[in-house]
Amino acid sequence: MTGPEILDCRGQRCPLPVIALARRLPEVAVGAVLRVLADDPAAAVDIPAWCRMRGQEYLGAADGGYDVRRVT
Hints:
Elements: E1 5-8, H1 16-24, E2 33-37, H2 43-54, E3 57-62, E4 65-69
Parallel strand pairs: 1-2
Antiparallel strand pairs: 2-4, 3-4
């Protein structure tokens, strides 16, 4: 079993981590998990909100990042 793909956005401020997520997610397979590493406190709100708006599955915070499963 492999772990999630990693998108390193540490050191980037809002809205850059969400923009990077939006650009990268179409590159991963449907059903795959992308872990967004982000140290901007706004990411804790922005990433789940982006998932709700875009119909993707937010899995929660894990290992210094935020896990998103591509649904569509």
